[in-house]
């Protein structure tokens, strides 16, 4: 088994910029595929939960969903999500 490559995306700075958020999410997913990362940590932050919902909606799109294996919500920190990848 290869080593675990982890990427991290912190959305705190662009929490109110919708188009940038989508671009950042798409970018980190593309990077995960390019670098064969196995895990991406996305930090929408705690806030009102709106940003996390937006992130989940983004990840739920059919063409995006096809790119990753599964999502895990951090039970201890609701301001954090993990996206796992399986590369062939």
TrEMBL record:
It comes from the Bacteria. Transmembrane segments: none annotated. It comes from Nonomuraea recticatena. InterPro entries: Smr_dom, Smr_dom_sf. Residues 9-86 form the Smr domain. Pfam families: Smr (PF01713). This is Smr/MutS family protein.
């Amino acid at each position: 088994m290869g080593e675990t490559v982890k990427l991290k995306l912190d959305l705190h700075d662009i929490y109110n910029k919708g188009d940038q958020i989508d671009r950042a999410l798409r970018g980190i997913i593309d990077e995960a595929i390019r670098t064969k990362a196995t895990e991406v940590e996305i930090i929408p932050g705690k806030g009102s939960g709106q940003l996390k919902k937006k992130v989940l909606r983004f990840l739920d799109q059919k063409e995006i969903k096809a790119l990753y294996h599964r999502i895990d919500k951090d039970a201890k920190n609701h301001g954090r999500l993990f996206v796992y990848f399986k590369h062939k």
